Amino acid sequence: MKTDAIIFDIDGTLTDSTDAVIRAWNRKLGEQDLPYVPLNRELASSLMGKTMDDWALAVMPEVPLTVSREVLGHLEAEENHEIRTNGTNLYPDVRETFELLSRDYDLYILSNCGQGYIEAVMAYGGLDPYVKGHLCFGDNGLDKQDNLRKMVTDYHMQNPVYVGDTQKDADCCAIADVPFIFVSYGFGSVPDALYRADSMKELPDVIRAMPE
Questions:
Q1: What is the average pLDDT score of the chain?
Q2: Are residues 117 and 77 in the same domain?
Q3: Which domain holds residue 116?
Q4: Does one domain contain both 11 and 72?
Q5: pLDDT per residue as tens, the chain (212 positions)
Q6: End position of a domain, from candidates 46, 62, 86
Q7: CA 114: distance to chain centroid?
Q8: Domain check: are 56 and 135 in the same one?
Q9: Are residues 114 and 136 in the same domain?
Q10: What total number of domains does the chain contain?
Q11: Beta carbons of 160 and 3 less than 8 angstroms apart
Q12: Distance from C-alpha of 72 to C-alpha of 38, rounded to nearest angstrom
């Protein structure tokens, strides 16, 4: 059956927001009195693609999760404002590839990020006209494999594929029984990936070559 929907991860697949996140989080963390670990590129990069609970535990390890989750809401709002105001490092050819793919497929975004982050990146990158729907951990607290199954069901997808950059993405796709395409320029490594694109420009050809 021909692919009818493409679901994209966001961090390491569409953008590298590490610098924007570091600026926003350290600025906001410095305004409160709770103990925290300042974000640097190594720590932020290691957390990309993980749930916001994972971020809270890493950045505020001495703070009860019930408290750090509350702080996280302010951090996420600051992060989203930073991206909308000063931008993010969108990967080359993302908007052009979305425009091209949207002619033949329904496009979606699914991530473990916080609420509002997908919308901020879409607004900065001009992706809104091409995206049919999006879902994230911040919306409902579900991990990626559960939200992947939910998205497939809610949008009545018949033959979707998922595009991501980490082994966790590949594992979630295996659990949800959704074909996975690995993009090699992101944060992770998936040596056993059946399908691979080394740039966004390659993605349309990779999808067209997948067996029906």
A1: 94
A2: no
A3: 5-16+89-209
A4: no
A5: 689 999 999 999 999 999 999 999 999 999 989 999 999 999 998 888 788 889 999 999 999 999 999 998 899 999 999 999 999 999 999 999 999 999 999 999 999 998 999 999 999 999 999 999 999 998 998 999 999 999 999 999 999 999 999 999 999 999 999 999 999 999 999 999 999 999 999 999 999 999 87
A6: 86
A7: 10
A8: no
A9: yes
A10: 2
A11: yes
A12: 14
Q: Are 167 and 184 contained in the same domain?
A: yes
CB 165 within 8 A of CB 199: no
What amino acid is encoded at 43 in this protein?
A: L
Token pair, residue 136, equals 């994230």
Assess whether 188 and 138 both reside in one domain: yes
Structure tokens at 156: 């009545």
Same domain? For 94 and 61 the reply is: no
Whole-prediction pTM: 0.91
Total residues belonging to the chain = 212
Q: Give the closest residue to 181 by CA, choosing from 200, 201, 161, 199.
A: 161
Sheet holding 106-111, edge to edge: 131-136, 106-111, 5-8, 160-164, 180-183, 195-197
* Distant-in-sequence, close-in-space partners of 153: CB < 8 Å, separation ≥ 6: none
Last residue of a domain, one of 86, 110, 138: 86
Residue spans of beta strands (DSSP E) within the chain: 5-8, 15-16, 89-90, 106-111, 131-136, 160-164, 180-183, 195-197
